[in-house]
Amino acid sequence: MSGAVIIGAGPGIGQAVARRFAREGLPITLIARSEQTLRAVAEAVAPSGVPVVTREADSTDQAGLNAALDQAVSQHGVPDVVVYNAAIIQTDAPGELSVRGHMEAWAVNVVGALNAAAHVAPAMAARGSGTFLITGGMPEPKPQYVSLSLGKAGVRALVTLLDEEYGPSGVHVASVTVAGPVAPGTDFDPDDIAERYWQLHTQPRHRWQQEVLHAGPTPPGNSLGMPG
User: What pTM did the predictor assign?
Assistant: First the structure.
C-alpha cells in the first residue's frame, strides 16, 4: 500500500480519518500548519503501528504544500488516497466580510484542494488508481455562513471538474458533506464521519459516488445507504 495523505490533519475529522486508514495498515502522511497539531495527531495514530510522516504546510502556500506532498511520495510512493480537510469555518453575513477575507477563505476552502489535486492526481491517473476526497459541508447555503456556503458550493463544482479530468483514468474524486457541527458522542462524531471516507475509498468503480451526505450516525455494514 502506498499510503494515505491527510491535508488539514486537525484533532477532529482529520485525526479520525487518519486513524481509520491506519487501522487498515496504510502508512499515513499528516499535513497541517502547526507542529503541535501534527504531534498530537501523530500520537493518536501511533498505536496502529503504521509509519507516520508529518509535515508543516499551509494549504494556501502552493510551493509548501507541493513540497509536503512530494515528501509523502518519496516516503510511501504515490498515495492510494488523499483527503483534503482544510477549511476556514466562520460566521459572516452578506457584506460583513471584506474582499480580502473572502479571498482568504476561498483560497483555503477551494483553491488549496485544487492545487493538491493538480499535484497528485496526474500520478494517480498514470497508475490507473487512486482516491481524492474533500471534506464538504453546507448542504444548504445559509446567509449567516456566506464564505463557507460559497466555499462548499465551490467544492461540489471542483469535485465534478476533477472527476471529469481524472475519473476516466481510475481516480475516484468525491466529497463527504458534513451537515452539522463535529463533536464526539453526537450524530456528527468524527469517528462515524471517518467511516464515510473509508467506504468511498473502497467503493467499487461501478458504484462510485461523487458526494456522500453525513447527516447522522453511519449505519453498520453498508454505511453509504446503498443496497447490499
Answer: 0.93
